[in-house]
Amino acid sequence: MATRWVQVAGADGQFDAFVATPPVTPGPGIVLIQEIFGVNDHIQGVAAQYASDGYTVIAPDLFWRSERRVNIGYSDAEFKRGMELAGKLDRAKTAQDITAAVQVLRSLPECKGPVASIGYCMGGMLSYRTAATGAVDGAVCYYGGGIGDQLDLAAKIRCPILFHFAEQDTWIPRTVADGVKRSFAGRDNASVYLYAGVNHGFNCWARSAYNQRAAALARGRSLEFLSAL
Asked: Which residues does 152 contact at the CB level (< 8 Å), separation at least 6?
């Protein structure tokens, strides 16, 4: 595997994106969408995970208008800083940034085949919104904060989409998962999983909420989902 930073031409400026490429190229693509902690060590590690599975991964730096290459951890102070940065995001411009990153990914010689979005928390919501734009061939959403307020977008999502929710999520009530199920009722392009006994952030090995079993199960389901695109 190899990693590098590349430049992406946005609608109103250049920004960086982290790229991880697989040992054998070309491979299908993933646009990996960050949490509020930036394209931090964990997101870069997740990119490397998927690259080890044969995917070419791009993780755009979505906070670039406020601060470039944010890489923070999970202390209370860092969480507060991340929330402040997330609060400054312009939803329309962020959507344009993700679409631009997808276009760069598709143009890389290491990428060939379908491109999916995968996001966590804030990124899970943005992965959901990206699916609604038609920019990707599939989408995975881990405990997406804010999806419950945007269920009207479900009607616009035609690509396959996979949702992972935590049963004991202190940020996202179980009613959100129920609402997602209702919004996609009668359609065969959405799968919704609820993980018992775990909290928000269960996939992140750097957080106290990490749960190895749930993370492994969700990752296996995500890989199976991606392989079918």
From this structure: none
- Joined together, the tokens standing for residue 132 give 């609604």
Could you confirm whether domain 2-227 is CATH 3.40.50.1820?
Answer: yes
Task: Sketch the domain layout of the chain as residue ranges.
Answer: 2-227
**Residue 105 and residue 141 in contact, taking contact as beta carbons nearer than 8 Å:** no
Reported as a single tens digit per residue, the pLDDT across 95-140 is: 999 999 999 999 999 999 999 999 999 999 999 999 999 999 999 9
Asked if 159 contacts 131 with a C-beta cutoff of 8 angstroms, the reply is yes
The alpha helices in the chain, defined as continuous H runs, are 41-52, 76-87, 91-107, 122-133, 174-183, 212-227
Instruction: Give yes or no for a contact between 78 and 50, defined as CB atoms under 8 angstroms apart.
Output: no
Dump pLDDT digits (tens) for 188-227.
999 999 999 999 999 999 999 999 999 999 999 999 999 9
CB-based burial label for 61 (10 Å; 0-12, 13-18, 19+): buried
